[in-house]
Amino acid sequence: MGDPSWRDLRDPFDTLFRMLPSETQASLRPWGGLMNPLEWTPGAGIRDAVDASADTARAVRSLDPWGTLAGVGYMGLGLLSAMVPPLRQVAPARLPMQNASKSARIFNPPTKPPRAFEADYRKEPPADATGQLTHDIEGRELTAPLVVGRRMVGMDDVALPPAQLDTLGTSLTGRSPESLPPSKMGGNAGLYREWFDPVTGHRERAIALDKTLPAVQVPRVVGHETGHGIYARIPFGIPTEGVEHGYSGLRRVYNDLNTDPSDWRMLKSAKTGEPVPPRYWTSPESRGYRAGEVVDELWAEAFRAYMANPNYLKATAPKVAARIRAYANPNPATNRYIQFNSLAAPALAFGMLLPAVLDEERQP
Prior knowledge:
Strand order of the largest sheet: 1-4-5-3
Largest sheet: 4 strands, mixed
């Protein structure tokens, strides 16, 4: 996998610009990229085309025709501006991105019985002298300051404490999550945004929350937006093939984290161990997300589940957990901040799922 972190490197002009007083920066911003000599070079257009190619791939994967068409158009515009650099000052080939938590009614992952350490590391675990694991269960090196899942030999999975969510969000975006009044949130509980500084051309990121959120919902919404922040740093996204549907797929995880635990179906599932039938699942579509937003929402919630309760994700959706490790752990743009560990539980026997598949029961 290529190293996408070069996009985050700040050029000398950017560094100098940020040293100016904030009032001076504000007065100069209307001039946009006209001030930055590097934005007049062919390299800026090539950078725009590369960014647009990643956006195009995400749109194709999300079956978003308009996003695909826009991405192809911006790729062409980026390449054209590489040949004619002044064109960038007329028609910049870079679009902002925004993901939203449309509802604050999201919940913690259900509790699952802890899995024995020996079931994850069946051979001698790679660890240092203190017993800290040095590699994930697939053998990838663990170097991030934050590791969720298995951390120490013989110990249980470790979730990311809510207090560290702000730290992670700040590391991913370069600024602390901001609480805003509802009038600035557009009816959303949370927002993850990316845009491009018109002067420096640098990619900027931010997480915002509705300041009226109940305290219990704040870490959940921050976790969701942080999930968007991690997913956005993975080039071309993560494929959903083979992990989206079924009782151990992304949509099952989304339902579990977006359906009230007091719902009668969730209560029955907790009591019997049988999953809620798919026809009752809460989905991104039922929450009002457009087709092109669905994949991002599914992965954002999967990342939130892994951070909040790694034992839940490995027990419920082992292939989803493995897919996250495969794409996030070796990625230089994310493993500077966080990595994931733990092993999936074996798939449930079909007979254990059959009662739920055949369940035609309606609410009494």
